């Protein structure tokens, strides 16, 4: 008997800490589970990273099937039709795909302008240069389509160095202190700062958090969101708290499977 999805319902998932361990590749078990879930429920992913990084993490579950005209140089190898999710929202939804088709983009450069961007980047790099932390690597600011990703240690650090910085940051609050300084310095820029992952934080205009993706989901009246950083200041907080969503806090990919099974699959769709 063919399974029919419940109309008007979608399950949205964060990536790091929800579908994968932080910056790790999804497991085969999780990939297979998501495809089983998709038979019953419309499924989307919403990550703060760009499409390339989301594709790397979700492995074979997000596959480039044909190359499209790139809209930024970083997408030369990743512009693609996305096969295995109904919606893929990169950069909080500032780059949005539905059924493999690009349906929307937003530009931080157009919003702020070059002069304000330069002011922010210059100040941030000076701050990091003066920051006393055990190690520093490269790529302290990553420019994405709709946001800046800032890493005090640098994104070129190894996984071991990433893990060590996360522990260090939990004790000394390097990122949160930096965010406080930037928030005060650039108060008139209307920027939002969102701490996520292990080593960095995102910077984007007010309202460009993960709730941005909801503008593409008007046909859904029941939107479930699953994320691990749902606390205030975390990059899942705004969409978790949104009146348009039913928020679920998860502690690991295994917990995501457990909660989704109970919500959507346990009663063979009877609970839907």
TrEMBL record:
<protein>
    <recommendedName>
        <fullName>Phosphomannomutase</fullName>
        <ecNumber>5.4.2.8</ecNumber>
    </recommendedName>
</protein>
<feature type="binding site">
    <location>
        <position position="144"/>
    </location>
    <ligand>
        <name>alpha-D-mannose 1-phosphate</name>
    </ligand>
</feature>
<dbReference type="GO" id="GO:0046872">
    <property type="term" value="F:metal ion binding"/>
</dbReference>
<dbReference type="GO" id="GO:0004615">
    <property type="term" value="F:phosphomannomutase activity"/>
</dbReference>
<feature type="binding site">
    <location>
        <position position="23"/>
    </location>
    <ligand>
        <name>alpha-D-mannose 1-phosphate</name>
    </ligand>
</feature>
<dbReference type="InterPro" id="IPR023214">
    <property type="entry name" value="HAD_sf"/>
</dbReference>
<dbReference type="GO" id="GO:0006487">
    <property type="term" value="P:protein N-linked glycosylation"/>
</dbReference>
<keyword id="KW-0479">Metal-binding</keyword>
<feature type="binding site">
    <location>
        <position position="200"/>
    </location>
    <ligand>
        <name>alpha-D-mannose 1-phosphate</name>
    </ligand>
</feature>
<comment type="pathway">
    <text>Nucleotide-sugar biosynthesis; GDP-alpha-D-mannose biosynthesis; alpha-D-mannose 1-phosphate from D-fructose 6-phosphate: step 2/2.</text>
</comment>
<dbReference type="GO" id="GO:0005829">
    <property type="term" value="C:cytosol"/>
</dbReference>
<dbReference type="InterPro" id="IPR036412">
    <property type="entry name" value="HAD-like_sf"/>
</dbReference>
<keyword id="KW-0413">Isomerase</keyword>
<dbReference type="GO" id="GO:0009298">
    <property type="term" value="P:GDP-mannose biosynthetic process"/>
</dbReference>
<comment type="subunit">
    <text>Homodimer.</text>
</comment>
<feature type="binding site">
    <location>
        <position position="240"/>
    </location>
    <ligand>
        <name>Mg(2+)</name>
    </ligand>
</feature>
<keyword id="KW-0460">Magnesium</keyword>
<comment type="function">
    <text>Catalyzes the interconversion of mannose-6-phosphate to mannose-1-phosphate, the precursor for the synthesis of GDP-mannose. GDP-mannose is an essential sugar nucleotide for the synthesis of D-mannose-containing cell wall polysaccharides (galactomannans and glucomannans), glycolipids, glycoproteins and the antioxidant L-ascorbate.</text>
</comment>
<feature type="binding site">
    <location>
        <position position="155"/>
    </location>
    <ligand>
        <name>alpha-D-mannose 1-phosphate</name>
    </ligand>
</feature>
<feature type="binding site">
    <location>
        <position position="202"/>
    </location>
    <ligand>
        <name>alpha-D-mannose 1-phosphate</name>
    </ligand>
</feature>
<dbReference type="InterPro" id="IPR005002">
    <property type="entry name" value="PMM"/>
</dbReference>
<feature type="binding site">
    <location>
        <position position="245"/>
    </location>
    <ligand>
        <name>Mg(2+)</name>
    </ligand>
</feature>
<dbReference type="InterPro" id="IPR043169">
    <property type="entry name" value="PMM_cap"/>
</dbReference>
<feature type="binding site">
    <location>
        <position position="162"/>
    </location>
    <ligand>
        <name>alpha-D-mannose 1-phosphate</name>
    </ligand>
</feature>
<comment type="similarity">
    <text>Belongs to the eukaryotic PMM family.</text>
</comment>
<dbReference type="Pfam" id="PF03332">
    <property type="entry name" value="PMM"/>
</dbReference>
<feature type="binding site">
    <location>
        <position position="228"/>
    </location>
    <ligand>
        <name>Mg(2+)</name>
    </ligand>
</feature>
<dbReference type="InterPro" id="IPR006379">
    <property type="entry name" value="HAD-SF_hydro_IIB"/>
</dbReference>
<feature type="active site" description="Nucleophile">
    <location>
        <position position="14"/>
    </location>
</feature>
<feature type="binding site">
    <location>
        <position position="16"/>
    </location>
    <ligand>
        <name>Mg(2+)</name>
    </ligand>
</feature>
<feature type="active site" description="Proton donor/acceptor">
    <location>
        <position position="16"/>
    </location>
</feature>
<feature type="binding site">
    <location>
        <position position="14"/>
    </location>
    <ligand>
        <name>Mg(2+)</name>
    </ligand>
</feature>
<keyword id="KW-0963">Cytoplasm</keyword>
<dbReference type="GO" id="GO:0006013">
    <property type="term" value="P:mannose metabolic process"/>
</dbReference>
